[in-house]
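User: Could you check the structure of this?
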Amino acid sequence: MTELIVVSFDDLSAARAAMADLRRIEKEGLVKFEDTALIERGADGQVHVKNELTGATETGAAVGAVIGGMVTFFFPVVGIAVGGAIGGAIGALMHSGVEGSFVKEVQAQLGVGKSALFLAVKSGTSGVITALRPYSGEVIQTTLEGDVEEALKDAMKA
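Assistant: Sure, the predicted structure tokens are below.
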């Protein structure tokens, strides 16, 4: 089951640094993400959202490229459009990450100079807690069990 973790930070660099640490432990195999998003509200009040590729998007693109290549071989002009459409459809059907409407809701609540991480964690929530321990932040929402959520909150206290 995928667990959702949403954490806000008082500055822009903290979420970036935390995401870098999370990606490092992902490469080590300690955590597996379904989806991630990083939101920042700059000093000018502008909101920047970095929605990273999900496994579904990557799979959809790969399947679409293979199908597009096969169709292109037989029907060159149509192949590119068909491959892209099929890849996008497959990615959309498989997508189960962070909902855009929820991202916008949190985005509206972020103050100037603040940031937030959205993490859809497939496995390794204990690794996420360990990776976030050096950072001071506020847990906005999770789908974690009570004791695990409390451990995350305690880990992120200043």
